[in-house]
Amino acid sequence: MIGSISSGCSNDEVSFSEVSIDKVKKDVKDFILHIETSESNKGNGIYMFNDSEKNHYLYLNQDFLESKNGFGSLDIKVDDNSWNLYLSEGSEVTELVDEYKLYKIKLNEEYEYMKVFKNGEETYFQTIGA
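Request: output the structure for the sequence above.
Response:
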């Protein structure tokens, strides 16, 4: 699944794609394993792993979902000095298909600020790793 992007300048500033945990480097897998095995990491289910200044992994687990909703969409918007992640939950589901979502995000430049929004409201990353 390839996502959409929005930008003030050009469409090649940022891209993202959904990836499988099996297809990422060991340090990303270790980060996710630590999240899933640590009892102290219960929270909003939004995690970021910074592989480099321009490559990031966004991990969403079950804690992200409220009630019986499924995973929704991701959109990224950039401006002069920041990039913003817009996450949404999907509609109510009877059976949860995905246990997690993992996205690889590629930026073509470094940004000073990063914000995350869930269902239109600004929120926070439970953990950011590198």
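The chain has one helix and ten strands.
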